[in-house]
User: What shape does this take?
Amino acid sequence: MHALRALDAFARLGTVWEAAEELGITRSALSHRLAMLEVTVGFEVAVRSGKGIALTARGRRYALDVQKSLALLHDAHDEDSKPIDGNLCISSTPGFASMWLCNHIASFQAEHPDLNLHIVANRELDQANDRSVDVFIVFGEGGWPKQHVQHLYDVEFLPMCSPALLNVHGGLKEPEDLLRFPLLHLNTWDDWRQWLSIAGVPWPQRGAGIRFSDLMMVQTAAIGGQGIMMGDGITCAGALAAGHLVAPFPIKVKSPAGYYLVRNQKRPSPAVSAFTRWLHTLFKRVGTELKVGPL
Assistant: This one.
């Protein structure tokens, strides 16, 4: 456990001296714990980089799993404590909040009826610096130094549309058939460019379609038959399950960004711990139930 906590602190803070300071140990003791961990797991978690050390790629992946496990252990220790009350402010990206969180949050409220919840949407998808917020659900590439970061899930995009579009304008039998319809996306065309390239479809010379500033608007337009959106199986899970959206092709592209849970406190409050536990449990269940593939 000491070695795992050392890895967690180093992964979050980025330097040996800051991690050692947080744990109340010397730098050499922290380095020794990382070395002990490498012996236990059988691979290098850190290597020398210039005058300091840095996590290896495998070490970074392992650290994300360790962070989740430590959070679950902490929450399990507090499981039988007194009921949680007070206030909890959750900041989320607008699309995730409206398309996923708002469809599940009542189950968390039912578990903690004495907790006052406040959910706010942040237009900046990767911002986590509002001191009035207890915990952030953000979309980015993991760059939140000095904050406690837990990975939620990686995003894989694929085209989705209303079932009404499947049999109009000749149908959707091949990937290039998508270009018969407006392409819908959030802010940029990067994911569409990548997906079409993988599918062997040239980027259209004409106008590509419609960009929106909010993912909920993208989904609403797709459900309304206004074009083809680029969506993922978590945020669009409700629309897929209800049959409002379908995925005509199985090809997926992995986004360089993903969803993360970020907080500023060194030690989470009971409310934040409970929310973290609930979120990870729900994601695990949704991940095993959800299948997104060809029709």
